[in-house]
Structure formats: C-alpha cells, structure tokens
Design goal:
Strand content of chain A: over 45%
Number of strands of chain A: 11
Structural class of chain B: mainly beta
Number of helices of chain A: 0
Strand content of chain B: over 45%
Distance between the termini of chain A: 37 Å
Helix content of chain A: under 10%
Largest sheet of chain B: 6 strands, mixed
Radius of gyration of chain B: 14 Å
Structural class of chain A: mainly beta
Radius of gyration of chain A: 14 Å
Shape of chain A: globular
Helix content of chain B: under 10%
Order of helices and strands of chain A: EEEEEEEEEEE
Shape of chain B: globular
Oligomer: heterodimer
Distance between the termini of chain B: 41 Å
Number of helices of chain B: 0
Chain lengths: ~120, ~120
C-alpha cells in the first residue's frame, strides 16, 4: 500500500515568512509523529498525535511552531516567522497506536527539506 | 533523559564483507525498545531491525543482526555480505516503553560499501 507522503519535497523561503508542511500518513495509522533533522542537532522529536489530539508537544522548539491534525489523517506543521535556524529536513512518521506494554514500528515519509534564506 | 551514542561517524566496507556498527545508550529504564534505521540519499528512513529490551535473544533480519548487551547498554548492528545498496546513514534509536512513541536517535554512522 501507499507509504507516508509529505509535501512539498523542498521548500525555500525568506526569513520572516510563514510555511506549512504537510504529512499524509499510512491509511489506518492513528499515531503520527513529526521529527526534525538538522546538521547541528541531529534528529529531534517534535510532536506526537494520537488521532487529532497531541498528547505531547514538548519537542516543539518555540511558540513559532504549531501543528494540527484533522480527521485523524493529514497533519500540517506550521512555522511562523521563519528563522535561518529553522532550516532542516522535517520528517513525518506514522504507526498504529502505541500501547503502554508494546510499540509499533514507525514508518517515515521522505521528508521536507526547508531552507530559510 | 536518554542518550544514544554512535561513536563511528563514518565507516567503509567492501562488498560481500561484514561490518559492525556500534551504538551505546544511557537509560535508567528497564523496559524499552531499540531500533536501527537506515537513511539512504533519498532521505526516507527505513527500519532495519528492532529489539525489545525484555528479550534476551538477539534480533535477526536476513543479513542484519544485532548484538544486544543489556548490562553494557550496547546495541551493535552487524551487516553480513554487504551490498552496494547498503550504502546509507544508519541511525540507532531508543524508545522508552513508558511513552511508547518518541524515538531518541543517535547522530548516525555513514556507511559506504565499495565494490
């Protein structure tokens, strides 16, 4: 079946502009995750959705970052007033819901490379 | 907080040979999960292998196997009969079973398989 898809593949923006990144998870996966991959910080967890709720937003680096998920499917990650340090690859993953006593594999999308000039 | 350390930024191996990638982690938890992900130039992270901490038996997936040493907090990946398509970044990752969702990644090892 179809994997996790993300759009756009690449995004170049100017400092101070807002950007929206989109993630379309695997059908049937109720859990969705956003990660950021940058040269300086490596791979960082940003936020986790179970359905449309985000129980853990602790990884969001600042209040310029927000994310939502609608219909238990597509998620958008919004970065307002972008800064050069926001330049990174933003990865989305999805899975079946994690349980306290077990966990399911997270399947990743190809990512969006964001460049802030 | 858990930390994951991959001490080999780059490695090289000849085709058909065997290579081992190192990973150590630090945690006070007794129940957790460990993963190796592969990221080729296409950027897509692909799960290679996973290990549940409560399982003593080392996980194996075809040419890929792990050496899980819980007491030493070590989780190395062995790739046998290396193939050119194995060229990629390899990330070791830790997940706390209490949360069950956030992967904590190491910095990665860049593996080059040469003909």
């Amino acid at each position: 079946g179809a994997g996790v898809s993300q759009s756009p593949s690449n995004k170049v923006t100017e400092k101070g502009k807002d950007v929206e990144l989109r993630c379309d998870p695997i059908s049937g996966h109720t859990a969705l995750y956003w990660y950021r991959q940058s040269l300086g910080q490596g791979l960082e967890f940003l936020i986790y959705f179970q359905g449309n709720s985000a129980p853990d937003k602790s990884g969001l680096p600042s209040d310029r970052f927000s994310a939502e998920r609608t219909g238990g499917s597509v998620s958008t990650l919004t970065i307002q007033r972008t800064q050069q340090e926001d330049s990174a690859v933003y990865l989305c993953a999805s899975s079946f819901p994690p349980q306290r006593s077990s966990t399911d594999t997270q399947y990743f999308g190809p990512g969006t490379r964001l460049t802030v000039l | 907080a858990q930390t994951v350390t991959q001490s080999q930024p780059e490695m090289s191996v000849q085709e058909a040979e065997t290579v081992t990638l190192s990973c150590t982690y630090d945690t006070s938890e007794s129940n957790y999960y460990l993963f190796w992900y592969k990221q080729p130039p296409s950027r897509q992270m692909i799960l290679v292998i996973r290990q549940e901490a409560y399982k003593q038996q080392n996980a194996t997936e075809n040419r890929f196997s792990v050496n899980f040493q819980k007491a030493a907090k070590s989780f190395s990946l062995k790739i046998s009969d290396s193939q050119l398509g194995d060229t990629a970044m390899y990330f070791c990752a830790f997940m706390n079973s209490n949360s069950g969702y956030a992967l904590n990644f190491g910095k990665g090892t860049s593996l080059l398989v040469t003909p």
